[in-house]
Amino acid sequence: MESGGEAVHAERRASGGCVSVLVVDDDAAGRELLAEWLRGRGYAVEEAEDGERALQLLAQGPCVDVIVLDLAMPGMDGWTFLARLRADPRLAPCRVLVLTAEPVRNAPAEADAFVCKPFVPERFAVVLSRVAANAR
Questions:
Q1: Which residues make Cβ contacts (< 8 Å) with residue 7, sequence separation at least 6?
Q2: What confidence tens digit (pLDDT) does each residue in 47-98 have?
Q3: Can you give the pTM of this predicted structure?
Q4: What domains are defined for the chain?
Q5: Nearest to 62 by CA among 130, 1, 6, 132
Q6: How far apart are CA 15 and CA 10, in angstroms?
């Protein structure tokens, strides 16, 4: 049986609606550049400057299809955000693509995909499409 969030995603994909993405990054210029790049490719995009703001946005409505998450942020960092997201039954199904310059020995188990900054747009687009296609 699908949860409310899963049903919303299934309905959106079935109707051909655009994929929704939440970009979470404290670097305003980078976040805005990525958001515009995504919008230019047909994604519906929201932005948050840190994990706390991202959780506030997610609490206001259904989970987005994909969260693009930086790990190194002041306030609530990406690691803490991931832990809180996965601990919340309503938000846990959200797909997360980590996009970070932070050196990480192993990709976070809580993430669905991992891309290092700076990224190659074509590679990022492939990974994002794969994660979005598998939205829970």
A1: none
A2: 999 999 999 999 998 779 999 999 888 888 888 999 999 999 999 999 999 9
A3: 0.83
A4: 4-133 (3.40.50.2300)
A5: 6
A6: 9
